[in-house]
Amino acid sequence: EAQVTQNPRYLITVTGKKLTVTCSQNMNHEYMSWYRQDPGLGLRQIYYSMNVEVTDKGDVPEGYKVSRKEKRNFPLILESPSPNQTSLYFCASSPGTGGGTEAFFGQGTRLTVV
Amino acid sequence: GENVEQHPSTLSVQEGDSAVIKCTYSDSASNYFPWYKQELGKRPQLIIDIRSNVGEKKDQRIAVTLNKTAKHFSLHITETQPEDSAVYFCAASTGGGADGLTFGKGTHLIIQP
């Protein structure tokens, strides 16, 4: 089954404790991205990647890192999480360059930073 | 960069009535306009999309219209049903740009029985 898989689904952590949210897709998509969803703010792009070893900042990159060592995986790293990073996070992948095609979303990761 | 405004933020309609959600965009180079539906606790999923060479597209009870001159596009849902209750997001993109989709803030559609 074609899908985007994120882990974990739920995560509670403390301020400053490094964490990684994993994302994997099995559709051989070149384009992958991370979004955060906050009430009243919609979906805002954090980082995106057009291919292996090619990543760039989205609209809200502060406090986040990403890597794209393999085509299928695009982990989101929070080196020193803070409470303002409490949010619902979605990974997405798209064929081609990403902007002009359907984005397939993972099931989401609800992160709470206390 | 692109900016997408979406209205209303909440829309309540009677079951069987029509619902219209409107979006405006700022970048005249945008040429791809998808709509996503997000049910409670679920991931966003594409329900319909339109490209700038088309003015209107229909899929059963759902239709999207695009006015490039005015830089706005709308989602129309007819004969609404309880399962249409969800949050709907519009988005815009230049269709090939590396920056992907820019989303509106979402509309919470409530179908009243």
Secondary structure topology:
The complex is a heterodimer of chains A (114) and B (113).
Chain A: E1 4-7, E2 10-13, E3 19-25, E4 31-38, E5 42-51, E6 54-57, E7 65-66, E8 76-78, E9 87-94, E10 104-105, E11 109-113
Parallel strand pairs in A: 2-11
Antiparallel strand pairs in A: 1-3, 3-8, 4-5, 4-9, 5-6, 7-8, 9-10, 9-11
Chain B: E1 4-7, E2 10-14, E3 19-25, E4 32-38, E5 45-51, E6 56-59, E7 62-67, E8 72-77, E9 86-92, E10 102-103, E11 107-112
Parallel strand pairs in B: 2-11
Antiparallel strand pairs in B: 1-3, 3-8, 4-5, 4-9, 6-7, 7-8, 9-10, 9-11
Distance between the amino and carboxyl termini of chain A: 36 Å
- The SSE order of chain A reads EEEEEEEEEEE
Number of helices of chain B: 0
Major sheet summary line of chain B: 6 strands, mixed
Instruction: Tell me the helix content of chain B.
Output: under 10%
Strand proportion of chain A: over 45%
**Intertermini distance of chain B:** 41 Å
Radius of gyration over C-alpha positions of chain A, nearest whole angstrom: 13 Å
| Average pLDDT rating of chain B | 93
Shape, principal axes of CA atoms of chain B: globular
Calculate Rg of chain B over CA atoms. Answer: 13 Å
Helicity range of chain A: under 10%
Structural class of chain A: mainly beta
Largest sheet of chain A: 7 strands, mixed
Elements of chain B, N to C (H/E): EEEEEEEEEEE
Shape of chain A: globular
Classify the secondary structure makeup of chain B into a structural class: mainly beta
β-sheet strand percentage of chain B = over 45%
Residue runs with pLDDT of under 50 for 5 or more positions of chain A? none
How many strand segments of chain B?
11
